[in-house]
Design a protein that fits this description.
The complex is a heterodimer of chains A (about 190) and B (about 350). Chain A is an alpha/beta fold and about 190 residues long. Chain A has a domain of about 130 residues: 2-Layer Sandwich (Alpha-Beta Plaits), CATH 3.30.70. Chain A has a five-stranded mixed β-sheet with strand order 6-1-8-7-9. Chain A has a two-stranded antiparallel sheet with strand order 2-3. A two-stranded antiparallel ribbon of chain A has the order 4-5. In chain A, strand 2 and strand 3 form a beta hairpin. The radius of gyration of chain A is 16 Å and the shape is globular. Chain B is mainly alpha-helical and about 350 residues long. Among the domains of chain B are: about 55 residues; about 55 residues, no CATH class. Chain B is about 65% helix and about 5% strand. Chain B contains 15 helices and five strands. A three-stranded antiparallel β-sheet of chain B has the order 1-2-3. Chain B has a two-stranded antiparallel ribbon with strand order 4-5. In chain B, strand 1 and strand 2 form a beta hairpin. In chain B, helix 1 packs antiparallel against helix 2. Classes of the chains: A alpha/beta (about 190), B mainly alpha (about 350). Chains A and B meet through strand 3, helix 2, helix 3, strand 7 and strand 8 of A and helix 3, helix 9, helix 13, helix 14 and helix 15 of B.
Chain lengths: ~190, ~350
């Protein structure tokens, strides 16, 4: 991907503008696909925005565990929401995603997930969440554009989950000097 | 940012020829050919004018079986298919939860209530399309195979006898409601299909959600094909009823060409969901039965219930087979996974993140 999403949780102020903007997106009106979690709720304002990281290596885990071949992965690396006619609402993608991204509507028997605002980004526009983020905690652009904006920042697109690592299409911002290591996926 | 060599093999392999699937497809196509020969009593009842349809259906059987066998070989599909059938046929489940299977069949397969939750108009259109296609299939396939044929009753002008596999069944008058329905069944199904397709075509041009990721070949072409089949089919009736059979031969060839092209397209496109979808019934029964049997699995971090222990164990096995070596992660609910990643980020990556 030439342009992608760069997430910097350290900049997130938890304002929920991204959540509201995502809800307005044409492809899933009324539903928000971005997650905003308060990491230390009640004690600090630290917030964690989570978009789909569009895993590679070579195919996203959600697409691999789908028993209905319902999750299309484009040649541009975008991992799309499950095809409505195929998704059987089994939840495999929801639980196999190490980032906790896909959502499931059991009544409609459908999965939903962030598709990097495909209707916008495929036409060269920025994603809804990045457009409204007041602190640029969610940045849409090329790596060069990110570095021009933040000379002391670097980005990592490899995440560690136990002994396994996953390469992603989106990246997380890390301090300069930290770019050689995978970003930890948690302590599960 | 760094790029590294993929750790896992690409599982897609779209153009690889699968020997098992090829063998199964050949056997299936051969069995169907034999069934056509035997069912039409050595082709005595086979209508030669319909040979294009029958031949296309044999190709359809090959394509569908090939793709189905390839599909069920992937670890998640194989596991769900086995577990689904086991739950579906389980006497133990039937005794303990007698309504589970019938409810799933009626609600999910026949009434498709999950589509109604997406929108009443979509549901009504899909029901029209679904029952129209089912009806047309049930009428057309036995007719083109020579399994069903009609003969006029000797000594009458409008009496007909229906033969199934060469055995005489009902006798009816063409001008009764049964006669009308028998000879116009495909017209009724065509109207249902046109109604459903019209709504979906309108939606594909007006609804922004549908328009976002639609593709000409995947989403629009199937609808156009169904409309073309239905309209050319209705034109045959129009020709015989109002034009005294003029242009009938030409229309019959056009209709057959459209049907044949659509039939051979089925294994490759959106229509394949018709073959895949019934598998979802087994999956729903398996999930519900295992939750009722063993109770919910609880998140190891927040203790919130989600899914069943059987489901979690099966998914862990599937992930292991796919080389996804972080099976332990799925013992945490999605929200806890995200929060744990946030905690790890502020502990290990950016300590100042408060």
């Amino acid at each position: 991907m030439d342009k992608t999403l760069f997430i910097d949780p350290g900049r997130c102020i938890g304002c929920q503008a991204c959540v509201a903007a995502c809800r307005e997106c044409d492809s899933h009106r009324g539903r928000t696909m971005i997650h905003l979690d308060y990491v230390d709720e009640g004690h600090s304002g630290a917030a964690m925005p989570t978009v789909c990281m569009h895993c590679e290596d070579p195919v996203a885990p959600c697409a691999q565990v789908c028993p209905a071949d319902a999750i299309p992965v484009g040649s541009d690396g975008i991992v799309h929401t499950a095809a409505k006619e195929r998704c059987i609402g089994c939840g495999n993608c929801v639980h196999a995603c190490p980032f906790g991204v896909p959502k499931l509507d059991l009544a409609e028997m459908l999965q939903f997930k962030c598709d990097m605002c495909y209707d916008r980004t495929s036409r060269g526009q920025s994603t809804m969440c990045a457009t409204v983020c007041p602190t640029s905690a969610i940045f849409y652009g090329s790596y060069e554009e990110l570095l021009a904006d933040r000379p002391h920042a670097r980005a990592v697109d490899i995440f560690g989950f136990g002994d396994d690592t996953i390469q992603t299409g989106c990246a997380v911002v890390v301090p300069a000097g930290r770019e050689g290591q995978p970003v930890p996926g948690g302590y599960a | 940012m760094s790029r590294r060599e993929p750790k896992r093999e690409d599982p897609s392999g779209f153009f690889d020829v699968d020997a098992t699937a090829s063998a199964a497809a050949l056997v299936g196509a051969a069995l169907l050919t034999a069934a056509i020969y035997l069912g039409s009593r050595g082709l005595r009842n086979f209508d030669a004018a319909l040979i294009g349809y029958a031949t296309a259906t044999v190709f359809l059987a090959f394509g569908v079986i090939y793709r189905y066998v390839v599909w069920i070989q992937s670890p998640p599909t194989r596991r769900y298919l086995l577990q689904g059938w086991k739950a579906f046929l389980s006497w133990h489940n039937f005794r303990r939860f007698p309504t589970l299977v019938p409810k799933a069949l009626i609600s999910d397969l026949a009434l498709q209530n999950f589509i109604r939750k997406r929108g009443v108009a979509r549901w009504a259109a899909h029901q029209a399309l679904f029952w129209g296609v089912i009806g047309a299939t049930l009428i057309t396939f036995p007719l083109t195979f020579g399994w069903i044929h009609f003969r006029s009753v000797p000594g009458t002008e409008t009496g007909y006898q229906m033969f199934v596999f060469g055995l005489k069944t009902v006798t009816f008058d063409a001008f009764t409601w049964l006669g009308w329905l028998t000879f116009h069944g495909l017209d009724v199904t065509a109207v249902l299909v046109i109604g459903g397709c019209t709504y979906f075509l309108w939606r594909r041009f007006r609804n922004r959600e549908a328009m976002t990721d639609q593709h000409l070949a995947h989403d629009l072409l199937p609808l156009v094909a169904l409309v073309a089949i239905s309209v050319t089919g209705l034109l045959l009736t129009f020709s015989s009823a109002l034009l005294e059979g003029r242009y009938y031969d030409f229309l019959a060839i056009i209709h057959m060409a459209v049907v044949v092209l659509t039939l051979v397209f089925i294994p490759f496109g959106k229509f394949f969901h018709v073959i895949q979808r019934p598998a979802s019934i087994g999956v729903q029964v398996y999930k519900q039965a295992s939750i009722r049997e063993r109770g919910p699995f609880r998140c190891k971090r927040c203790n919130a219930p989600f899914e069943s222990p059987t489901y979690v164990e099966d998914l862990q096995q599937t992930m292991g087979e796919l080389g996804l070596d972080y099976e332990g992660w799925i013992e945490h609910c999605p929200r806890c996974k995200r929060i744990e990643r946030g905690i790890a980020y502020r502990t290990d990556v950016k300590e100042g993140f408060r």
